[in-house]
Design goal:
about 60% helix, mainly alpha, 2 helices, elongated
Length: about 80
């Protein structure tokens, strides 16, 4: 889900970087807290937003790791 095909990755990474810098300058949050916020915003949010947007549009979420043409004997219902 985190790929060039997901239109929510770049905005999420930019917002995550801005939040990280804001936490660095404005608070005394530890590095662990700042990195956790960055990972949550840049790594989790685009996947969730993409799945929700796909569900709202009525599209089926596609697993980018699985190639249905790679194994023609594989059961597509699994």
């Amino acid at each position: 889900m985190i790929s060039a095909g997901n239109p929510y990755v770049l905005p999420s990474v930019l917002v995550g970087a801005a939040v990280y810098l804001g936490l660095s300058f404005l608070t005394d949050a530890s590095v662990l807290v700042r990195v956790a916020v960055l990972v949550a915003i840049a790594g989790v949010v685009p996947v969730v937003v993409n799945r929700v947007a796909s569900a709202v549009r009525g599209e089926e979420a596609v697993d980018s790791g699985a190639d249905p043409e790679a194994d023609p004997d594989a059961d597509p219902e699994q």
